[in-house]
Amino acid sequence: MSDSAADGGVRDGAGDGTRAVRAGLPEPVKYEPTLPGPVFAAHFHLPGEVTGPYSYGRDDNPTWTHLERAIGELEAPGRSDVETLVFASGMAAISAVLLSQLRAGDTVVLPNDGYQVLPLVRAQLEAYGIEVRTAPTGGDAQLDLLDGAKLLWLETPSNPGLDVCDIRRLVEAAHARGALVAVDNTLATPLGQRPLELGADFSVASGTKQLTGHGDLLLGYVAGTDASAMTAVRRWRKVVGAIPGPMEAWLAHRSIATLQLRVDRQDATALILAEALRGRDEVTELRYPGLPDDPSHRVASRQMRRYGCVVSFTLPTRACAERFLDALRLVDDATSFGGVRSTAERRGRWGGDAVSEGFVRFSVGAEDPEDLVADVLRALDESAR
Ligand SMILES: *Cc1c(COP(=O)(O)O)cnc(C)c1O
């Protein structure tokens, strides 16, 4: 019996749906709920010596413990050498890895086409005397920058460009040079890709997106295999206090029960939508890693089990993209992605991403595919006028 089974978790060979509905549940206790409710506590009864896990609410909380086990079971099924820590947001988790592992004089390799906050992160790291090198995700371009690096940061598929890099290949090259590797697994979710199985030292993600999928909370996590590195990440969480509230942690855990249903539905519809968009003249630079002729598909199909719910494409002009977004009835014009309700936005409105004015990032929700595709095609027709 594995450790996770001993905790009331899922057998090693279980399928994704079984794993998702049972992930992180404690052993059943008569008259207790299956998923214990959120524990709201700043401090815990603590007479005498400090021996148990729960003392003060910034250090640990039983609601986090259940959620951390759940995420750990999804990121690394059947492994007991993986530690998972939850954070207040994806950025809190990302910062925790970067700032707990890097010192002045160290070098880190980041993608230059990743999440839009990474340029701000870069400036902060440089202000601390850390050398930052960047290269695009596609074509494994970060490979050429690894000499002397302490940490390699990957984001695959990249947001919003949906380029994919070969995690195994980059991990091998980084480890050969003594560098640790972290993968931002936000877009794929652990049901789409398991970076730790591909050799990465950290799988880091925003739980704000498809992992929890309802657009109602912010969360982040770090799952890692290197015990001493994870000790430093835990210390960082305590020092900075970037902790999730118990209510958010509990809502996240409840939401993970439907993860497999949501990703299967949303990712299947994303492919249907991408195929429908391919037939349109006004749509260019269509990207979805699940499309067999997408530039990302070959590498993605080797390391991903699902291709995500985000489709990106470009309309001829900014005005055209704005008219399109305005004409959609089933799709909210909003940022973020991964929710059960479809959202889309003209990414260029933020600045920061290297995208054209007509670039649209589309997050496919759980609507009926035929309704969604009809709405999108109608909005395209109307915005062409
Ligand atoms: C949203 C996002 C983040 C940041 O997550 P927050 O929960 O918003 O802090 C990091 N990486 C990627 C790829 C994201 O999409």
From TrEMBL:
Its EC number is 4.4.1.1. It comes from the Bacteria. The keyword Lyase applies. The keyword Lyase applies. Its cofactor is pyridoxal 5'-phosphate. SUPFAM superfamilies: PLP-dependent transferases. One of its GO terms (molecular function) is lyase activity. It is an enzyme of class 4 (lyase). Residues 1-21 are annotated as: Disordered. Pfam families: Cys_Met_Meta_PP (PF01053). Keywords: Lyase, Pyridoxal phosphate. Belongs to the trans-sulfuration enzymes family. This is Cystathionine gamma-lyase.
